[in-house]
Write a structure and sequence with these properties.
mainly alpha; 21 helices; two-stranded antiparallel ribbon; Amino acid/polyamine transporter I; about 475 residues; two-stranded antiparallel sheet
Length: about 475
């Protein structure tokens, strides 16, 4: 090896073969990689915030049976993605795989669907966390509860995005620690909630109430719980509970360039996060359903889990459960912003986003600061409609914001579909990295990245045989 050239690690050599230099700090362990996806799935969040979708569009039976069935299909997708990330451990994830297997156009569409979905999920998650913070404080103070407003919730939401952005900008290593803590919070927190719902309520619902009772509060088909409309329109909506919760597991791929032994660790991170979340989430949801004291009362309360808690136990226990969930939702928001910012960084590195030079820049700590900032700003902008007040049963409700929950999960699912439909396409020449970039006229074209490109601050540039491209490194601090 020529003098002055550092030997690349196995991870860096594999990344170089894919056409990239090591720009991000590779300090995450395999457990931390699993933790980011497990935190984004977050059964302490999705199962709480989306419970009403399942309750109002199918009832207890739809939740009890729909969750394991939906989770099984999601696990199949996750196993396919695990296979791909083991071969292509790059932050691009879904869009990179689609481009590699199906061409630049497939990668372009998959990338934008994935990016839009991740930012929409970030907005939805952070707003849900703000709602639960407000709700938890309301159980502690009657004055706070009486002063509820959409503006106050929005201010809390913006504060959550700001804190999350600062955490993401500060240090990649700190993020790994936070996600490790998040895993154990979700494990012990979910166990605590399940234990509370088993032992505190004076009595529980019967098995028939949980596994056979159906409800249609959708406002469609006259509330019928049979017939074609019920089966083909109403019931499928309940699956959003599962889809919205078990999503974002591609984060293990987006963080693969920051993970040691990424080919194996990221692959395990994807399927394990889905499997463990599916099992834990089902047990948690069953605990909710068995704790129901008055099904009609839950329906009148919009299917909110807070109604179940207030029915089944004292306000003190209800507050404890809400606090456990709220903390889990904050961890979820931080993890979502990490995933979204890394996706934007990778997509911009391939010149597929306007302003790509700015978003693909990393600071001296190897963190894509600008990508973190813009994802927070766009998420806040998307949520502005939540300030529009619509009274439902006398309560101001942010109905204009509601579509972002299914939109986020749908975007990620459609991106996965773009990848899966190209899985059988002939692979491109492995000696060249093929990507997507903007031409000077604003159109999009297929391009091949040069293998002898001059790099700024790139470890690969110290090893001429690596032949990979890099991104600009800012001299500014975080």
């Amino acid at each position: 090896m020529p003098e002055g050239h550092e030997a690349l690690t196995e991870d860096e050599l594999l990344l170089a073969k894919l056409g990239y230099s090591q720009e991000l700090q590779r300090s995450w362990s395999g457990f931390s990689n699993f933790a980011i996806s497990f935190s984004i799935i977050s059964i302490l969040s999705g199962c709480f915030t989306s419970f009403g979708l399942g309750w109002n569009n199918g009832g207890p039976a739809a939740i009890a049976w729909g969750w394991p069935i939906g989770a099984a299909f999601i696990l199949v997708i996750g196993l396919c993605m695990s296979e791909l990330v083991s071969a292509f451990p790059t932050s691009g994830g879904i869009y990179w795989w689609a481009a590699k297997l199906g061409g630049a156009k497939a990668g372009f569409y998959a990338g934008w669907l994935n990016l839009i979905g991740l930012v929409a999920i970030l907005a939805s998650v952070a707003y849900g966390c703000a709602t639960f913070i407000d709700l938890t404080l309301g159980t502690l103070s009657a004055d706070w509860l009486a002063g509820y407003s959409l503006t106050r919730t929005f201010v809390i939401f913006v504060a959550i995005l700001g804190i999350s952005a600062l955490i993401n900008i500060f240090s990649s290593h700190l993020l790994a620690i936070i996600n490790n803590v998040s895993v154990w919070w979700h494990v012990f927190g979910a166990a605590a909630v399940i234990g509370i719902l088993i032992f505190v309520p004076s009595h529980h619902a019967s098995f028939s109430d949980v596994f056979a009772k159906t409800i249609n509060n959708s406002g469609m088909f006259g509330g019928a719980t049979s017939g074609a409309g019920w089966l083909l329109v109403v019931l499928p909506i309940s699956v959003i509970l599962t889809q919205y919760t078990i999503t974002g597991y591609d984060a293990s791929a987006h963080l693969s360039e920051e993970t040691k032994s990424a080919a194996g660790a990221a692959a395990k991170g994807i399927w394990r996060s889905i499997f463990y979340s599916a099992v834990g989430g089902w047990i948690l949801l069953l605990a909710f359903l068995f704790a129901v004291q008055d099904a009609d009362g839950v329906s009148k309360g919009g299917g909110a889990v807070a109604v179940i808690f207030n029915q089944a136990m004292s306000s003190g226990w209800a507050t404890a459960v809400l606090f456990i969930s709220t903390a889990g939702q904050f961890f979820w928001a931080v993890a979502c912003q990490t995933s979204a910012s890394r996706m934007l960084f990778a997509f911009s590195r391939d010149r597929a986003v306007p302003g790509h030079r700015w978003w693909s820049e990393v600071n001296k700590h190897r963190v894509p600061t600008h990508s973190v900032t813009i994802t927070a700003v766009v998420a806040a902008a998307l949520t502005l409609p939540a300030l529009v007040k619509v009274d439902i049963n006398g309560t101001p409700t942010p109905v204009a914001f509601t579509p972002w929950s299914p939109s986020g999960s749908s975007g990620c699912i459609c991106a996965s579909r773009c990848r899966s439909t190209t899985a059988g396409a002939p692979a491109m020449n492995s000696k060249r990295a093929v990507g997507i970039c903007a031409d000077t006229t604003g159109g999009w074209r297929r391009s091949r990245w040069p293998r002898s490109r001059s790099l700024r601050s790139s470890r690969c540039s110290r090893h001429p045989s690596a032949g990979c491209r890099g991104t600009r490194v800012s001299s500014g601090s975080s």
